[in-house]
Write a structure and sequence with these properties.
about 450 residues, alpha/beta, Rossmann fold, seven-stranded mixed beta sheet, five-stranded mixed beta sheet, binds nicotinamide-adenine-dinucleotide
């Protein structure tokens, strides 16, 4: 079943959501807890209610990271001073294979945030059926204040501190916030210097094309956002919009994910009315030319100030009158304080963890659909997987091949989530008087797969 039988489903859906509202109103008045581990545990616990036969010991195992590395190291700066840096690499789970996940450079990154992001990677890989577990890395630094040479020395030293934790069959980093193809090339080179005599290319993905990177990887996460949205719309959940053409989209963040998503949606006829970066946002009621915005950002370092646009704040962008809101920057952007003001009918989570649990409940009550991060932004890790495969066999596939393979996986994951959600809506699965939202359903599927595989392997010894 790919489309909803609306006459049948919506009366049931509306009555169940109405029944749930009183309970939600009470919960929303609580103080919001933004601790990333508390949020990931709340999301897990909420999904675990719907997972059949999940053993108690497994719940504890799946909620905790497998391994947390915290490293401190000194680096000589360009002005001859010495600065100390702290970095994290967290492995959450390796039931399906080597752990996989990006490394972010950000002054505010914490080990708690990295733990929560590592868990997210486990669920994401399981949801799109990749033979990887979840990991994540973070380095506390402000990359905008560092020279290229400093960044290279910091990256090399960080990689060497992780030494044998990383490996093509063990733990495989990728780009994330404020890391890019160049960062991945330095990680590869450092690892290769320390492990000579092997084909070390698959130790990291998101590399430059000349270094064994994959065509389509740079665009993968943004393209995946488009594919997930198109598949969702084709199911007629928003009857007036069964395709992105003509829809007004506001995109927060204009980096690897946001800029590519803006261009991908624009090329399919969506009207990109606003984009932003860390310095602020721009708005045009008639729509932005995304290529023009890209050129302006490359020249000036920000989107703010482009001709014929109105400058807005990131907060104003989130609350714009639009059809699609696509957060593609930091976590916790949609929270209890602004969820009631969101006017989009669809939130497409390009970023990881952009919506808090309390905001999720408010949006669900208001009938705003949220397509969750582990589904929507899984295009990146999917093409990273194809890069890893290509590196093992020393091949390089073309852009269309990797993009089409990724599109099929994202569509399959969206279908799996949607079909399971329908099973709750029509009462084929027990709802506990609470129809789970798409995030919860996606997590249910992922947790079931990881839990099942854990038991199928047989717990060692
Ligand atoms: P990036 O560093 O390339 O871009 C980040 C963008 O966010 C930049 O435009 C930056 O200016 C903007 N930004 C930073 N602080 C901001 C703020 N306070 N308000 C508004 N905008 C701000 O990073 P990216 O790779 O595009 O990642 C963006 C998000 O997508 C992150 O949450 C990341 O975890 C997630 N993600 C990335 C990938 C990937 O393949 N790169 C895959 C999956 C998920």
């Amino acid at each position: 079943m790919t489309t909803v039988d609306r006459d049948f489903i919506f009366p049931i859906l509306l009555s169940m959501i109405a029944a749930m509202n009183n309970e939600l109103n009470e919960q929303d008045s609580d103080e919001e807890n933004l601790d990333p581990i508390a949020i990931s545990e709340e999301q897990f616990d909420h999904a675990a209610i719907y997972v059949k036969g999940l053993k108690r010991g497994l719940i504890e195992f799946l909620k905790k990271p497998k391994r947390v590395n915290i490293v401190n190291f000194p680096v000589e700066m360009d002005d001859d001073s010495v600065q100390s840096f702290e970095g994290y690499r967290v492995v959450h789970n390796r039931v399906f294979g080597p752990s996989k996940g990006g490394i972010r450079y950000h002054p505010d990154v914490t080990v708690e945030e990295v733990i929560s992001l590592a868990k997210l990677m486990t669920w994401k890989c399981a949801l799109v059926n990749l033979p990887f577990g979840g990991a994540k890395g973070g380095l506390v630094c402000d990359s905008k204040r560092l020279s290229e040479r400093e960044l290279r020395r910091i990256t090399r030293r960080f990689t060497s501190e992780l030494f044998d934790e990383l490996g093509p069959h063990q733990d495989i980093p990728a780009p994330d916030l404020y890391t890019n193809e160049q960062t991945m090339a330095w990680i590869f080179d450092t690892y290769d210097m320390l492990h000579p005599g092997f084909n070390n290319r698959p130790v990291v993905t998101g590399k430059p094309i000349e270094m064994g990177g994959s065509y389509g990887r740079h665009e993968a996460t943004g393209n995946g956002c488009l594919f997930a949205t198109q598949r969702f719309l084709s199911k007629a959940m928003i009857p007036e919009h069964q395709d992105v053409a003509g829809m007004r989209a506001a995109i927060q963040g204009f980096g690897d994910v946001g800029a590519v998503a803006a261009s991908a949606f624009h090329h399919q006829g969506a009207n990109i009315i606003a984009v932003s970066d860390s310095k602020g946002g721009i708005y045009s009621a008639t729509g932005l030319d995304t290529e023009e915005v890209g050129r302006f950002k490359a020249e000036r370092g920000t989107v703010v100030g482009m001709a014929d646009t109105m400058t807005i704040t990131n907060q104003e962008l989130l609350e714009l009158e639009c059809d699609i809101l696509l957060p593609a920057a930091l976590g916790n952007q949609i929270h209890a304080g602004n969820a009631s003001n969101i006017k989009a009918s669809l939130v497409v989570e390009g970023a990881n963890n952009p919506t808090t649990p309390m905001a999720d409940r408010i949006l669900q009550r208001r009938g705003i659909h949220v397509l969750p991060d582990i589904l929507v932004n899984a295009g990146g890790v999917t093409v990273s997987y194809y890069e890893w495969v290509q590196n093992q066999i020393n091949e390089q596939w073309d852009y269309d091949t990797t993009t089409e393979k990724m599109r099929i996986k994202i569509h399959a994951a969206m279908d799996a989530v949607f079909n399971r959600w329908q099973a709750f809506v029509v009462g084929e699965e027990p709802t506990q008087n609470h129809i789970p939202d798409f995030r919860t359903v996606a997590l249910v599927i992922a947790i079931e797969r990881v839990a099942h595989a854990t038991l199928m392997r047989g717990i060692w010894p």
